[in-house]
Specification:
heterodimer; A: 173 residues; alpha+beta; DNA polymerase, domain 1; five-stranded mixed beta sheet; 5 helices; 5 strands; B: alpha+beta; Enolase-like, domain 1; three-stranded parallel beta sheet; 20% strand; binds iron/sulfur cluster; binds FE2/S2 (inorganic) cluster; 2Fe-2S_ferredoxin-type (chain A)
Chain lengths: 173, 330
């Protein structure tokens, strides 16, 4: 009998999950139990960002969180950002700027950057912010704020271009 | 990962009761789960403390009381912290990644374990992981290791950033145990290895951290300077936290702390005092750095840290006091 009954609201849909084993990470719950394979597993140790999802609106590494710890939470994955026929502005910008090569890190980059733009709107500082109390968007800020997402293909320059364009289109400067 | 029993606590009391019964707290999970995947940590029971309500930041005697579950990202972005304790914001923001800081908690950050590679590798001798087995870092790859307060049993560092700032800011840790609450100055929270490197800090079995308190702001100039192998998302080789007050051209108060040079953030009253009464100058900063680094000892690959720590501290002091040290004698 399943010991852990949990409910997650994923991309707007409520999903119930019965887990026999508390060891299942949020990442494995998504990929193995719910067949949502958009979120990728890179390192499984919090070092690469491929597994980035939003939990209650905040970007986190889903590989370093247990699914049982998220009972009742709202989760956004890359599948929730846009559709092939209806891309989010950031997804479109990644296409326009070639913000990837193999594409493996891309779901994590997209979720992370989507949340990053919100963090800047909320005036969250970063370590490169000259003034901690007034934050603005520069390429240095984008690079620092995206440092939790590694890209083995090193598409970094184009990723920064794509994020800058999408952020500016949203009025974030 | 080894199997475990998972329970969730809905109050600090429930968490403490579970801890007393042998359960291990899990907060953000960003360090504990990593170590459990490596089977370096193998708790039988986890108590999830995320819903204990210990996630508030409150005013307290002109300072702040920061709940154990306050996320690193929230603490760094908190208005009062940015304004009155920018050192704390900057130290937190210099650590890990945005994703990790969104999960990582105040208590979990203090409790994070060393990044010594042998500690992570079950095939290596490591007294911290497996007491009595030896220490492969002593004559091994020890580039990241400690230069102060080491013992023949362990030369690991405490790797975190936030605690380095907290030591410079004279914070205290609030702890709950079977016999009630106690408060420990943060400078006395982490332990030097001695012959018990398995014990990172003074938290006893069955105790949990309730929060951290900050005394009222000093009004000094605060700088956190972190040196690392890459510009972001890397642990410190060395870091320096300084909080200095200059009045009428003289230093009237100084708090200097070095990170990643020992098993605890490294501060000494003597080094702080070296600066008090003197004019800010390169010479004065070097004297203070030499005092703080007194007794520093490399182990081969980490010999460079002694000079690096000295220069990092001098540079942080120069930045805090607005002194131009370029070109002066070394
Ligand atoms: C890739 C990577 C890079 C990183 N880089 C940095 C860096 O540059 N600088 C830095 O400072 N840190 C860095 N970190 C470490 C990070 O800061 C810690 O993992 C984090 O702060 C731990 O907090 P947590 O809440 O997730 O703790 P958890 O993983 O939940 O717990 C850690 C420990 O704290 C104990 N604990 C938690 N809450 C309590 C409580 N209330 N009472 C008693 N014990 C408790 C747990 O039992 C466990 O032993 C990095 C981590 C990763 C994965
Ligand atoms: S330095 Fe400490 S943690 Fe590293 S191998 Fe030696 S005993 Fe273990
Ligand atoms: S898979 Fe989670 S950070 Fe790499
Ligand atoms: S596109 Fe290949 S890893 Fe980033």
């Amino acid at each position: 009998m399943a010991q852990h009954q949990i409910t997650l609201t994923i991309n707007g849909t409520e999903r119930s999950l019965a887990l026999d084993d508390p060891r299942v990470t949020l990442l494995d719950a998504l990929r193995q139990h719910l067949d949502m394979t958009g979120t990728k597993k890179g390192c499984d140790h919090g070092q690469c960002g491929a597994c980035t999802v939003m939990a209650n609106g905040r970007r986190i590494n889903s590989c370093l969180s247990l699914a049982v710890m998220h009972d009742g939470d709202t989760i956004t994955t890359v599948e929730g950002l846009g559709e092939p026929e209806n891309l989010s502005p950031l997804q479109a910008a990644f296409l326009h700027h070639d913000g990837f090569q193999c594409g493996y890190c891309t779901p994590g980059q997209l979720v992370s950057a989507t949340a990053m733009i919100e963090e800047i709107k909320q005036n969250w500082p970063s370590v490169v912010s000259g003034d901690l109390e007034k934050v603005s968007l520069s390429d240095d800020e984008i690079r620092e704020r995206m440092s939790g997402n590694l890209c083995r293909c090193a598409a970094y320059a184009n990723i920064v271009d794509a994020i800058r364009e999408a952020a500016k289109a949203e009025g974030v400067a | 990962m080894r199997d475990f029993v998972y329970d969730r606590a809905d109050s600090a009391d429930a968490a403490q009761t579970a801890a007393k019964e042998g359960a291990r707290a899990i907060a953000g999970g960003t360090n504990l789960l990593d170590l459990m995947k490596h089977e370096v940590e193998t708790p039988d029971r986890l108590i999830d403390v995320n819903r204990t309500g210990l996630d508030q930041i409150e005013e307290a005697d002109g300072g702040l009381r920061i709940g154990a579950l306050v996320r690193n990202a929230d603490l760094a972005a908190e208005e009062r912290v940015r304004r009155d304790w920018p050192l704390l914001s900057r130290a937190i923001l210099a650590g890990a990644s945005p994703q990790i800081r969104n999960r990582a908690t105040t208590a979990g950050n203090l409790m994070q374990r060393t990044r010594c590679a042998y500690f992570y590798d079950l095939g290596s001798a490591c007294n911290k992981r497996s007491p009595g087995s030896g220490c492969d870092a002593l004559n091994g790859v020890n580039r990241m290791h400690a230069i102060l307060g080491t013992s023949e049993h362990c030369i690991a560092t405490y790797p975190g950033d936030m605690a380095v700032a907290l030591v410079a800011l004279d914070a205290e840790v609030e702890i709950a145990g079977a016999n009630g609450k106690r408060t420990v100055p943060i400078a006395e929270f982490h332990r030097l290895p001695g012959d018990r490197p398995d014990r990172d800090n003074v938290l006893e079995d069955g105790e949990i951290i309730l929060g951290v308190t900050l005394p009222k702001p000093t009004g000094g100039a605060q700088v956190y300077r972190k040196v690392r192998d890459r510009r972001s998302y890397a642990f410190a080789l060395v870091s320096a936290a300084v909080d200095v007050t200059v009045e009428d051209g003289k230093i009237t108060r100084a708090a200097l702390t070095l990170g990643s040079v020992a098993a605890k953030p490294w501060r000494s009253n003597e080094a702080d005092k070296v600066l008090v009464g003197s004019e800010p100058s390169r010479k004065a900063f070097e004297n203070a750095a030499d005092r703080l680094l007194q007794g520093a000892q490399g182990h081969g690959e980490n010999d460079y840290k002694i000079g690096l720590a000295r220069r990092t501290l001098v540079a942080a002091l120069a930045e805090a006091t607005g002194i131009d040290i370029a070109g002066d004698a070394a």
